[in-house]
Amino acid sequence: MSSLSEIGTSYASQIARNALDTSATSGLRTDYKNSSDTELLEACKRFEEYFIEQIFKGAQKTIMRDESEESGSSSTLRSYWEDNLAQEIASQATATQSIGLAQQMFEQMKRNQGMTIEEVDAKRAADKKAADEGSTEKAAEV
Question: Is 80 within the bounds of a domain?
Answer without folding.
Answer: yes
